[in-house]
Amino acid sequence: MIEIAELTPAEVSARAGELADVLDDVVAGGASLGFLSPLRREDALAYWRGRAAPVADGAAVLWVACVDGRVVGTVQLHLAAMPNGRHRAEIAKLMVRRDARGRGVAGALLGAAERGAVGRGVTLLVLDTQTGSPAERLYRSSGWTEVGVIPDFATDPGGVLQPTTVFYKLLSRESNPRNP
């Protein structure tokens, strides 16, 4: 059974090692998440410890997926900071360990982030993912709309430039308690 939990800032710090394990696994597997391979443990830990502050100040929300008590995935919601964009947020760093894929973990995390966005008054979500990655299928099957492809957007973990596909999703105003 997949258990999804939203983490407090203290929990983000306390679980930094488990989150670093997930990050290390997905980067080693070739996922383009902003890191190069090989990923140093210190860099992975520093990244996750650094996420506690944005969670504390309300700029970000972080969820983990656990199977049998083990963290196997995570996703973040980055809320827009400017007053004219508070209806908008970005889905970021959706990742699932390679040995936990194919069990619905990514979909469960994405669903949690979407519901969390609605509960925070968000009506528009955006994200980008490496073009041709398995994540593209997830987003399309979850009702996301492709905006387009940007060539040479970022390097993959091996240092090779890759394109990214940008997506958006309009969230239901009817189910959003903060929007009339």
From TrEMBL:
InterPro entries membership: Acyl_CoA_acyltransferase, Bact_Acetyltransf, GNAT_dom
Gene3D superfamilies for this protein: 3.40.630.30
KW Transferase (keyword) present: yes
Annotated keywords: Acyltransferase, Transferase
Gene Ontology molecular function, alphabetical: acyltransferase activity, transferring groups other than amino-acyl groups
Domain annotation N-acetyltransferase: ranges: 2-172
Pfam families: Acetyltransf_1
Cleavable signal peptide: none
Protein name: N-acetyltransferase
Originating species: Saccharothrix coeruleofusca
